[in-house]
Amino acid sequence: MSEAMATRPLEEILKEVRRIQIVARRQVNDLLAGEYLSVFKGRGMEFDAVREYVPGDEIRTIDWNVTARTGTPFVKTFCEERELTVILAVDISASGSFGSFRLSKMETAVEVAAVLMFTALRNHDKVGLLFFTDDVVKYIPPRKGRANVLRLIRELLATEPVKAQTDVSKALEFLGRVQRRRCVVFVMSDFLGPDCSRALAIANQRHDCIAVTMEDPREQSIPDVGFVTLRDAETDELLELDTRHPRVRALFAQAAREREMRLASWLRRANVSRLAIHTDQPYATSLQRFFRMRERQR
User: Fold this and answer.
1) What pLDDT digit, counting tens, does each position of 201-232 carry?
2) What are the sequence ranges of the domains in the chain?
3) CA-to-CA distance for 223 and 18, rounded, in angstroms?
């Protein structure tokens, strides 16, 4: 058992695993399996075997190493890549603990991650998990099978947000060192950190990177509720606001718009697709919309 799991009763974790398993499998069965298959399967070609050259074969497919060893021309043959490796890079910094609706950003991320994992499981893909804040906290290499998916969900549920800031670049740089084979990477974060566009662009050249942005509506605007004290979950910095003043509410909303514009610019420069998840909206709808958008792009 990991140290994270020791912080919550095992019975509570297992009960939540069962609940999320039911929710996730229903979403997969009803909505997502077909879209996932059409968007991610067959995205490339993988080496299959070598055979002797016959007139008409493409010269560029000649395997020169085998040809030199045998003295007879051989060519490489390829087949459509069917098996995928899926890695979920999940931001567990303390800002994920914020939520103004039923679930916090972190709790919503856990459910979305579970849906993606069960979708991959249904298609016999490998699934791995990476936790990060301003550095990599834990990495679980990708494996196949239902037991692996359930273990990853337990790890997600048992992990508490860490009082640290977010640095997506550190997670992607680590992934570049440990994951050489092309994979699909879902980076799940609120992206409240430094510019990560360069790291995203580099990772997206080797892998298929998707930015899963976790958003809560109270981070975009604040209602007129009088005096409020806001605390930064990652730095403990306190800010007092008098929300009765329209100017205060306008400045709050403007800061949120500027954050959104910066993030959109980072993703645009990196040419990375975005899956926007809002804590106050059904995430299944967002997943469907994203998969259909990717299908149109193909």
Assistant:
1) 999 999 999 999 999 988 888 877 777 777 76
2) 5-40+82-297, 46-80
3) 37
Q: At residue 152, what are phi and psi to the nearest 5 degrees?
A: -65, -40
Looking at the DSSP bridge assignments, the partners of residue 231 are 238
Superfamily of domain 5-40+82-297 in the CATH hierarchy = von Willebrand factor, type A domain (3.40.50.410)
d(CA 199, CA 270): 8
Mind listing the pLDDT tens digit for each residue in 107-136? 999 999 999 999 888 888 999 999 999 999
Determine phi and psi for 181, rounding to 5 degrees.
Answer: -75, 145
Report how far residue 169's alpha carbon sits from residue 232's, in angstroms, rounded to the nearest whole number: 21
User: 113 vs 30, 35, 244, CA distance in Å?
Assistant: 17, 16, 38
Strand ranges (E), 53-203: 74-80, 85-91, 126-132, 136-143, 184-189
Report pLDDT digits (tens) over 150-179: 999 999 999 988 988 999 999 999 999 999
CA–CA dist 150, 118 (Å, integer): 9
Sign of the C-alpha dihedral, residues 186, 188, 190, 192? negative
In the block, residue with structure tokens 């395997």: 63
SS3 44: coil
Token duo for residue 147? 């037991």
